[in-house]
Design brief:
Layout lengths: L20 E3 L7 E3 L8 H24 L21
Antiparallel strand pairs: 1-2
């Protein structure tokens, strides 16, 4: 009797998991498709930018807690004479 199974293409030959699939991380043992990020998704882009801004703010706060060099005194503010070269 001929086999009706399709030939195995890609994936993991040892476990029989087809390419583009993996076991669900909830421990149920079911196979779920690999998800890909849509680079043209504006909502996801805004969310990513917001996270980067938050991480940047956090890094600045951490840098303030551990200064590596002393800060220079601010430049004096006042009237300055400018020399004009003709």
């Amino acid at each position: 009797m001929p086999s009706t199974a399709l030939p195995f293409v890609g994936g993991d030959m040892a476990t029989g998991i087809p390419s583009g699939w993996h076991f669900a991380k909830d421990g149920s043992g079911r196979l779920v498709r690999n998800r890909r990020m849509n680079a043209c998704n504006p909502r996801a882009f805004r969310r990513a930018v917001r996270r980067v801004k938050g991480a940047r703010r956090f890094a600045k706060e951490v840098n303030k807690l551990f200064p590596t060099t002393r800060r220079r005194a601010p430049a004096p503010r006042g009237h300055h004479r400018h020399l004009h070269h003709d």
